[in-house]
Amino acid sequence: LLSRAFADKKIGKGTKVLFLSDNRYAWIVTDFALISLGAISVPRGSDSPTRELEYIIDHSGCDYLIAETENLLEKH
User: Fold this and answer.
1) pTM for this one?
2) Cα–Cα distances in Å, from 18 out to 33, 48?
3) How would you classify the pairing of strands 40-45 and 64-67?
4) What is the pLDDT of residues 16-68, one digit of tens each?
5) Confidence (pLDDT) at 23
């Protein structure tokens, strides 16, 4: 189901996706969904420093950023 939602957003083979999440079940599900589509997952923990995330975003060529929660996104 998650893979289908990602595919509907044009996430597929070679698409780079940064996802920001706590280390929990949702992390694994998201990673497997991305991998099943051939996407390149760039996982980062919720405790990642903002400067590190900025560097990754600036240098990785990520097409999408997915945050586990809106609060987590606003934190950075």
Assistant:
1) 0.84
2) 13, 12
3) unpaired
4) 999 999 888 888 999 999 999 999 999 999 899 999 999 999 999 999 999 98
5) 85
Nearby residues of 33 by Cβ (< 8 Å), 6 or more positions away? 2, 3, 6
Residues 44 and 19: beta-carbon distance below 8 Å: yes
Distance CA 36, CA 29 (A): 10
Alpha carbons 68 and 21: distance in angstroms, whole number: 5
C-alpha 14/C-alpha 17 separation (Å) is 9
What domains does the chain contain, in order, with CATH numbers?
2-75 (3.40.50.980)
Q: CA–CA separation, 44 vs 56, rounded Å?
A: 10
Q: How confident is the model at residue 73 (pLDDT cuts 50, 70, 90)?
A: confident
What are 11's two structure tokens? 């996430």
